[in-house]
Amino acid sequence: MTGSGDTSKDMDLKLRVWRQRGPKDDGAMVEYDVPAVSPDMSFLEMLDVLNERLTLEDDDPIAFDHDCREGICGACGVVINGIAHGPEVTTTCQLHMRSFTDGDVIDIEPWRSGSFPVVKDLVVDRGSLDRIIQAGGYISAPTGTAPDAHAVPVPKDDADAAFDAATCIGCGACVAACPNGSAMLFTAAKITHLGLLPQGQPERDSRVLDMVGQHDAEGFGGCSQIGECTAVCPKGISLSTISRLNVDLLGALRSTYAK
Amino acid sequence: MPASTLTKHRATVRSTVVLKAIMAITGLVMIGFLLAHMAGNLWVFAGREEFNDYAHHLRTLGEPMLPHKVLLWALRIGLLLSVVLHVYSAITLWKRAHVASARKGGTRYHTSKGQRGVQRSYASFTMRYGGIVITLFVIYHLLHFTGNQIHPGGASSSPYDRVVNGFEIWWVWLSYVIAMVAIGLHLRHGLWAAAASLGANTSPRRRRQLNTGAITIAVVITVGFLLPPTLILFGGIS
Ligand code: HEM
Ligand code: SF4
Ligand code: FES
């Protein structure tokens, strides 16, 4: 906000923000005018500015989640104008105000899902995603000194695809965007990441059975291949990971029950 | 395997993924039937005699290897089973999705912006309501042509005359147009989704190819079914 001098590009915005005092509160959209927003600010910085003012006015600042502010922790997602993480395909912390124009009205809401209860304002509890990981998103490996990097050879294509899937940051945008409230893209990213690597093979069947079992037990919906998840995913996790999960799951059921 | 694991895996047998696989397989069975049915209807262009022969042959299919109507009934039972499993899975998944999307479905956000999503197809919005339209249509259609209980335009024991009498009336034609467009939309998303649910979506490129294939087959089925009624209405066949 300081220095650059050229305030002619600054924008006057109106925000409509979901305010909810606690999990049991009904909540409602509340309007705020935010004048003189620099296009160089990040979306969260813009909220910081508003929160400073609210604090000075003895108002309750808007609660929102954030940590790294560099697009890698997955803490910060909100729904902006109906789209998870807003108009650019990136995390909310990496979204800049230059994506908006002077006079815009911006609607800000928390992720909404039966499995993501609202804690306060824009903060939701995404523990359900952690429990899916706990159910099977791991491998068994001896601990101690790190093994040589080339001790287990991995074909280059598999390594690349596994790495792409491993970039999922667990933000939950896929759930927020899915008309069915499904967390299948998140679950499939982990299944793909570990299932493509040699280290992931011993638990491959039990992993997919346990993780899908937990996904459903958490109350997430089923995937109907609509593709909104991958379109908003800040890490570009591909919808094809879900086809892969389905094949793994049907195969695991077959080998469990064929015995 | 320890008991607790087994119980967990039993739960996975009823998981959303398995329900979607059931929907996909039963959906594909029904599409197979639709393609055969559509092709069969085109016999109407060959004339009264030929079409009546075709309709009769459906009932004697498989004879003399199998008794009268046995194959027809086997197909009917297979289809009925597919419909029941398909609709059961659809309703179960619909209920789950309702709870998972904060009990508000696709419109759970207060904002009026972005309600059409980022990239979703129109067809993907209409799967569930389209399914209801198709169910109602199938009942009407069976009463019309198979059971012969309703006969707009005049009753007849000749299948050919029933078809021609019916479609000479504009609102009968229109009701079929609405139903076939509903089926076309259902199949446009359904075919793609079935392929992807069963594992065929292996890359973004394959996703585009599968969608092109789904659109093509949906158009072929919709247009193929609408050709005879439309030509009858506009006087091409009498
Ligand atoms: C001629 C009859 C029908 C055919 C050929 C058909 C075909 C299909 C196919 C192939 C799918 C895709 C399965 C998948 O997603 O993996 C599907 C999905 C679906 N069908 Fe049907 N269906 C028919 C009738 C119905 C009926 C009567 C209903 C009524 C409830 C229905 C409701 C649905 C729903 C809700 C889906 C899930 C849509 C989604 O993926 O979002 N269908 N159908
Ligand atoms: S798949 Fe993408 S949208 Fe979903 S949690 Fe992972 S990073 Fe976020
Ligand atoms: S704050 Fe870490 S990804 Fe946005």
CATH topological fold name of the largest domain in chain A: Fumarate Reductase Iron-sulfur Protein, Chain B, domain 2
The arrangement of helices and strands of chain A along the chain is: EEHEEEEEHHHHHHH
Number of strands of chain A: 7
Task: Report helical residue fraction of chain B.
Answer: over 70%
Instruction: Average the pLDDT over all residues of chain B and give the rounded result.
Output: 89
What's the structural domain tally of chain B?
1
The number of helical segments of chain A is 8
Regions with little confidence, pLDDT below 50 for 5+ residues of chain A? 1-5
Biggest pleated-sheet summary of chain B: none
**How big is the Rg of chain B?**
21 Å
Q: What is the C-alpha radius of gyration of chain A, as a whole number of Å?
A: 21 Å
Cα(first) to Cα(last) distance of chain A is: 67 Å
Distance between the termini of chain B: 69 Å
Shape of chain A: elongated
Strand-residue fraction of chain A?
Answer: 5-15%
Main sheet attributes: strand count, strand direction, barrel closure of chain A: 5 strands, mixed
Runs of chain B with pLDDT <50, length 5+?
Answer: none
By secondary-structure content and strand pairing, the structural class of chain B works out as mainly alpha
Major protein interface: A-B, 54 and 52 residues
Shape of chain B: globular
Strand order of the largest sheet of chain A: 2-1-5-3-4
